[in-house]
Amino acid sequence: MSKLQSDALREAISQIANDSREKQRKFVETIELQIGLKNYDPQKDKRFSGSVKLPHIPRPKLKVCMLGDAQHVEEAEKMGLDYMDVEAL
User: Fold this and answer.
1) Helix (H, G, I), strand (E, B) or coil at 86
2) Among its keywords, does the record have Zinc (predicted)?
């Protein structure tokens, strides 16, 4: 494995973004990044997680339907979500 300079990474991502603007596609394009950590054993070491807030909404028309019992149905009604209870399934 080799080290990747941050400038080269930024340049590659901006090139990909520019190319996607030139030729519009009829699906949502994604960029995947895989990072390998030196001297890190996932079997032995504790897992870690994090989150990054995106500057835009990736799926603005995403709909959610909550499946659950009476308690979950009440919570879904309060949040304004679509829901189905056990009887409806």
Assistant:
1) coil
2) no
CB contact set of 68 (below 8 Å; sequence gap of 6+): 76, 83, 85
How deeply is 72 buried, as exposed, middle or buried, from its count of CB atoms within 10 A (0-12, 13-18, 19+)?
Answer: middle
**Structure tokens, 7:** 């400038």
pTM above 0.70, yes or no: no
Q: What is the pLDDT of residue 78?
A: 92
CA angle, corner 49, sides to 15 and 38, nearest 5?
70
Q: What angle do CA 43, 6, 42 make, to 5 degrees?
A: 0
Q: Report DSSP letters for 18-67, one per residue.
A: HHHHHS--SS----------TT--TTTSPP-------SS-S-TT---EEE
pLDDT tens sequence across 26-53: 888 787 777 777 787 777 767 767 777 8
* Token digits of residue 82: 């679509």
